[in-house]
Amino acid sequence: MKKHLKRFSLIIALLALVIITTNIIVINSARENTYNSVKTIPKNNVGLILGANKYVSNGYINLYYKYRLEAAIELYKAKKVDYLIISGDNSRKDYDEPNMFKEDLIKNGIPEDKIYLDFAGFRTLDSVVRAKAIFGQENITIISQEFHNQRAIYLAKKHHINAVAYNAKNVSKRLRLKTNLREYLAKTKAVLDVIFNKKPKFLGEKIRIPHV
Q1: Residue 116 to residues 7, 28, 110, 180, 209: CA-CA distances in angstroms?
Q2: How many Cα neighbours within 13 Å face the side chain of 30?
Q3: Is there a domain that residue 184 lies in?
Q4: What are the two backbone dihedrals, phi and then psi, of residue 39, each rounded to the nearest 5 degrees?
Q5: In DSSP terms, which residues pair with 139 in a beta bridge?
Q6: Which residues span the domain enclosing 159?
Q7: For position 173, what pLDDT does the model report?
Q8: Looking at residue 172, what is its pLDDT?
Q9: How many structural domains comprise the chain?
């Protein structure tokens, strides 16, 4: 029994070490590439909005969505991006993250011809890699919350994309507890995906975005 407990404790300790180490790697990789102010962030031709569901289970607006939308509008109106790619999940007919964002961006004054939709952004890896592989962008501004941007920047660097990120406002500590716990594992998975050369689920035909 003691042998089994010792072995189990060793496995748990090793897993904890892997999670801590990979999280440090991802966070450090993004340290110089995330911004909280539109005044200091460099300009890029394209901003990449990482998708989120507009609503949570109780029917209220998802604050992650709301704050990403606001950040994208702020960047565009500050002329720090000329176009926006909305990359999200559209794996079901009744679930369409990109068009949710598109409708709200247009309502807030973003011209429709400045918006491109990526319906195969099932994961952050897919969204980042497809920005280059499908939309031809080697320099992008990623738009999400800081914890998410760190992971996206790490993946961008590993796929030879020059990326900066604009940090959307985060939700309250109480509301983000579950997300924070999940993010520890997501950062570990991002490192493993790079090690094992994980590819996006779909690629497809290239889409040209003009350069202003």
Answers
A1: 51, 31, 12, 29, 8
A2: 27
A3: yes
A4: -70, -30
A5: 162
A6: 2-195
A7: 74
A8: 82
A9: 1
Residue 1: per-residue pLDDT: 66
- Domain of 11, CATH number, reads 3.40.50.620
| pLDDT, mean of each 10-residue run, the chain (212 residues) | 75 94 97 96 98 91 96 98 94 82 98 97 96 97 98 98 97 80 95 96 94 82
Question: Is 201 domain-assigned?
Answer: no
Q: Looking at the domain assignment, is residue 203 inside a domain?
A: no
Residue 8, Cβ neighbours under 10 Å: how many? 10
Using left for φ > 0, alpha for ψ between -120 and 50, and beta otherwise, residue 156 falls in alpha
CA distance 46 to 72: 11
Name 87's bridge partners.
50, 118
Cα angle, residue 161 at apex, residues 141 and 34 outer, rounded to 5°:
40
Task: Report the distance separating Cα 88 and Cα 50, nearest Å.
Answer: 6
Residue with tokens 């920005």: 131
Amino acid letter, residue 73: I
